[in-house]
Every structure is written in C-alpha cells, then in structure tokens.
Amino acid sequence: MRPSTMSEQCIERVRHYFQKGDAGDSTIIEMFTDDIELYFPKFGTRRGKAAVAAFLQGLLSQLQSLQHFPDRYTYIASENFVVVEGWETGISKDGTTWPVPGRSDGRFCNVFRFREDLISHLHIYVDPDFLGQDLDRFFWGALPAAPEEKR
Fold first, then answer.
1. Do the domain assignments include residue 120?
2. Beta-strand relationship, 32-40 and 63-68
3. Are the beta carbons of 60 and 25 closer than 8 angstroms?
4. What is the CATH number of the domain that holds 78?
5. Integer Cα distance of 30 and 102 in angstroms
6. Structural domain harbouring 49
7. For the segment 17-61, what is each residue's pLDDT rounded down to a tens digit?
8. C-beta separation of 119 from 33 below 8 A
9. Angle CA 17–22–24, to nearest 5
10. 71-75 CB contacts, 8 Å cutoff, 24+ apart
C-alpha cells in the first residue's frame, strides 16, 4: 500500500530535520510549533521552543559531532504521524566515538506528529548513555560485541 501524500511530505520533513540537526543548523527551531512537546530520557517531557533550545544546547555541549543516516531508516507514517527507527554515530567532546561495540548500537526510535508543516510532538527514545559508561546498570555483564551487521 502506498503512503498518502501527507505521509510522504511528513517523512521528507523528518529527513530534513535530521539533516539540519547533523549540520548544527540553528534554523531547525523553525521546524517546530510554538507549543512543541518534546520528550527525551533524562530530560523528561517539556513544551515550547525554549525547551527545545535548552535540550539542544545541553546535548550539543557534550558532542563534537552527531551523524544520522535518514536515507536508510525505517519509516512508518500515517497521515500526520511518523515513527522512525534508525541509528546514529557521534563523537563526544572528549573524542570518544560511539556506538561502542558490545555496549550500544546507536539505535533509537522517534515519534513525530505534525500540525500543518511543523513538528508539534517529538518523542525521542534512545539510551542517553551514548558512550556506554554507565557500567553499574549493565545487569547482564559486559558481553562481547555482536558481529557487525550491514545497515
């Protein structure tokens, strides 16, 4: 079944969101409604563009770079909703790269809702311990890395 035109447009906006984010493009804030609802683990649910700006400032203060691969993600769209499953890579301020073999795969799932052409709802589901440093919560012990899979 072919997605609706609205769904296709929303998917394109999501791809554009990842491109702007990776480029550090400050105009990304223009992609959100004034009352945007944002959820991120350890940040909680917040509303408004000021909350998005605070989130981005906090996240980017810890990173040298962040890279997404939106052309290879899985998208599920229905009218004004898009769910995307993907992975990311990056480098922290101290030069540590992720994903960390055996600790994290850099996987995430985001849920977007659109109002007209703007993102009104963004819930980001990811382990915020990008570098796998929270060893106390590796309840199963440090496992060897799984063989690399093609993405």
1. no
2. unpaired
3. no
4. 3.10.450.50
5. 37
6. 5-113
7. 999 999 989 999 999 999 999 999 888 999 999 999 999 888 888
8. yes
9. 95
10. 71/15, 72/151, 75/11, 75/14
% of the chain surpassing 90 pLDDT:
57
What pLDDT sits at residue 1? 43
**Distance between CA atoms of residues 151 and 142, nearest Å:** 24
Q: Is residue 32 part of a domain?
A: yes
Assigned token pair, 78: 């229905």
| CB-based contact 29:12 (threshold 8 Å) | no
- For residue 39, the Cα-to-chain-centroid distance in whole angstroms is 11
Question: What confidence score (pLDDT) does residue 111 get?
Answer: 98
| Within a domain: 108 | yes
What domain count does the chain have?
Answer: 1
* Summary mean pLDDT of the chain: 86
Closest Cα partner for 151 from 83, 97, 86? 86
Asked if residue 149 belongs to a domain, the reply is no
Where are the alpha helices (H) located in the chain, listed in sequence order? 5-23, 49-60
CA distance between the termini of the chain: 24
Q: Residue 129 — pLDDT band, cuts 50, 70, 90? A: low
Tokens (6 digits) for 121: 């709802």
